[in-house]
Each structure stands twice: as structure tokens, then as C-alpha cells.
Design brief:
The protein contains five helices and four strands. The relative contact order is 0.07. It is α+β, with helices and mostly antiparallel strands. It folds into two domains: 9-107; 141-244, no CATH class. The radius of gyration is 66 Å and the shape is rod-shaped. It has a four-stranded mixed β-sheet.
Length: 250
């Protein structure tokens, strides 16, 4: 087949026309689409990279916050343990103190009860001893013993200390005109013994007062003189009551 330059030229021209058409009507839109796609992909990559960076930052922040939370939890746990330990210690100390106080109170009550019981037993023993001794002395008491005690009483009145004598005289001076000195005796005294006893009291009181005598068997043996508010006694009942702790005058 012979080579045709005209055909060749037309083919070349056709090729360039095709290239120009493709370039202007096909390649440019495609390139524009590719560029747009490339730009979009680049933007998406940048956005993805930003999101990855943000995620990494959030992860780091979360991990840091988690570590802080772990530390705070550990600190809170230790603080709670310390508070519980202190509360237990305080409660134990308070309980020990209450128990010690209760023990001390119980001991004090027991000691007070024992002391009260011991005092009651002692008083009962003294009372029994007093009654037994009084019963024995009543059996042994005789008028002669009362007379002898009356003699001792006169001697004691004659030798009263100044203080006691002053008290006696003041009590006698405070008596009215119709007042009397009362003398109780365990056994009846004869007239001379009564006169001597009255004289001794009048002399000690430094005032003449009528004296009355009365028998008082409860004295067991001896005498008891009442001059106003002043009381003088020398008898077995008062002495026994003094040693037993009882009040013989009410």
C-alpha cells in the first residue's frame, strides 16, 4: 500500500485536534475533579490528623486525670483510714475512761456500803455491849454506890475549873426567882447527903436556889444535876452512853 502524505497529515491533524479536545473538554474537568478530590483528601487528612492529635491530647488528659483521681482516691482512703483509726482510738479511750469511772464508782459504792455495814455492825455491837454492861451494872448497883458517887460529885463540883464554874454561875444567874435546881439520883439519898449535895451546888453557883430531888433509876448509880441550861452529872448511865456514842439526854 503506498504511503499517502495527505492522509498522514490529516491523521496528525486529527490527533492534535483530539488532543486539544481532550485537553479542553476532558482533562481539565478531570484534573479539576482530581485537584478537588486531592484538596478534599488533604483537608480530610488534616482534619483526621487534627482529630488524632485531639484524641491523643484527650487521651493524655484522661490518663492524667485518671492518675490524679487515683492519687486523690488513695489520699482519701488514707485520710479515711486515719480518721477511722483516730475515731477507734478515741472511742476506746472514752470506753476505757467510762469503764474506769464505773469501776471507781462501783468500788466507792462497795467501800461505802462496807463502811456503812461495818459502822452499823459496830454501832450494833456497841449498843449490845452497852445494854449488856448496863444490865450487869444495874444488877450490881446499890444505894451505897450512889452515895459514894455523890461524894465524888461534891468533890468535883467544889474543884470545878474556872471556865466550868463561870458557865454554872451564868446559868444560875439566868434562872428566874421561882426556878429550882433539879437533882436526879439513881437511889434515894438520906437527908444529910441531900443537904451536903445541895450546899455544894449552891456554893459553886454562887446563888441560893431551892433544890429538888427525884429518883431516876435509869441512871443506874450516881447523880445528875440540872441548873438552868447547865448540866452536871456523875452516874454510870451517862458514862456508858458517852463511851457507846449514844446521847443519854435525848
Amino acid at each position: 500500500m503506498p504511503f499517502d502524505w495527505t492522509t498522514f497529515a490529516l491523521e496528525v491533524l486529527n490527533f492534535f485536534v483530539l488532543v486539544w479536545i481532550l485537553k479542553h473538554f476532558f482533562y481539565r474537568p478531570v484534573l479539576a475533579v482530581l485537584d478537588e478530590r486531592q484538596a478534599r483528601l488533604s483537608a480530610e487528612r488534616q482534619q483526621a490528623e487534627q482529630m488524632r492529635n485531639d484524641a491523643a491530647a484527650l487521651k493524655s488528659q484522661y490518663e492524667a486525670r485518671l492518675a490524679d483521681w487515683q492519687r486523690e482516691r488513695e489520699q482519701s482512703r488514707r485520710l479515711l483510714d486515719n480518721q477511722l483509726t483516730q475515731a477507734r482510738t478515741s472511742a476506746m479511750e472514752s470506753l476505757k475512761k467510762r469503764l474506769a469511772d464505773e469501776e471507781a464508782k462501783a468500788r466507792a459504792r462497795a467501800e461505802a456500803l462496807a463502811a456503812s455495814r461495818e459502822g452499823t455492825l459496830r454501832r450494833e455491837a456497841l449498843r449490845d455491849a452497852y445494854r449488856a454492861t448496863a444490865a450487869m451494872l444495874k444488877r450490881l448497883a446499890i444505894p451505897e454506890l450512889t452515895e459514894r458517887i455523890a461524894e465524888v460529885f461534891r468533890e468535883d463540883v467544889a474543884t470545878l475549873p474556872d471556865e466550868r464554874r463561870t458557865v454554872l454561875r451564868n446559868a444560875a444567874q439566868a434562872l428566874g426567882v421561882s426556878a429550882t435546881v433539879d437533882i436526879a439520883v439513881a437511889h434515894r439519898l438520906a437527908g444529910p447527903e441531900q443537904a451536903l449535895l445541895s450546899a455544894a451546888l449552891v456554893q459553886a453557883a454562887d446563888r441560893s436556889l431551892p433544890v429538888t430531888f427525884k429518883e431516876a433509876p435509869e441512871l443506874i448509880a450516881g447523880v445528875r444535876a440540872t441548873v438552868g441550861e447547865c448540866l452536871l452529872h456523875a452516874n454510870l448511865a451517862d458514862e456508858l452512853a458517852f463511851f457507846s456514842g449514844e446521847n443519854p439526854h435525848g
